[in-house]
Amino acid sequence: MTRNSSILIITLLVLGLGLFGLLVWGNYRYTTQNPGGNDFLVHWMGAKSFFEEGISPYSDEVAIRIQTMVYGRPAQAGEHELRVAYPLYSIFLFLPFALIPDYNFARAVWMAVLESGLIIMAFLSLRLVRWRPKPVVLALFLLFSVFWYHALRPVILGNVVILIGLAIVGILLAIRAGHDELAGILMGLITIKPQVVLLLIVFICLWAASNRRWKIVIWFLISLGFLTGVGIILIPDWIIQNLREVIRYPS
What we know:
This protein is mainly alpha-helical. It has helices at residues 3-33, 38-53, 60-71, 91-98, 103-129, 135-147, 149-157, 161-177, 180-189, 194-210, 214-234, 238-248. Helix 2 crosses helix 3, helix 5 packs across helix 6 (135-147) and helix 9 (180-189) runs parallel beside helix 11. The protein is globular.
């Protein structure tokens, strides 16, 4: 690597960190004036309670803590119970943010991650479809990618679906490039929100099998088995607890 290349990389890194810092600052001003982000709050509290006190994120105690932060009291009949319903291994994604004691600041950093994810996903999507728009069209495309309803609302709510969308684009790029191991691993990771990706995973596995791309299926099963096993080490009956929450979630 030449000296000029090193300087360019360092410059881009500093600029990226600076822009990320500005996002966090702007988001923090927003979060202090606009309470919410319940999708993030649920999993922030779940991860925080488990790693700090060893309390199951599926427990009634954690649910009451979340409800108290939102409603100022336990949820009443007819109100959203705001319970953790993701697989246990999802807490590792939220752990870095659970270590931040100030919820508003943790939410601001999480929003910055989601916003960055939207921008990266937009560029990767262009690469996926091999589209090279002119600068004006590119600028409009990026603005739309960040500010259309189905991007802005998940950012405000703190929904992990943005990162799952980013991973899905990564899966498609990996499959096209022949990186089947990476595609399988990413497929395992997106199961943190299984109801969103179940049909997609089934389709990819069937496609991979029909095209004899067995590494995709094998590495998906390996990654899913590893994540499930880590969860069992932490809470042996987490699958039963999680299924109980999934069954009650529609109510």
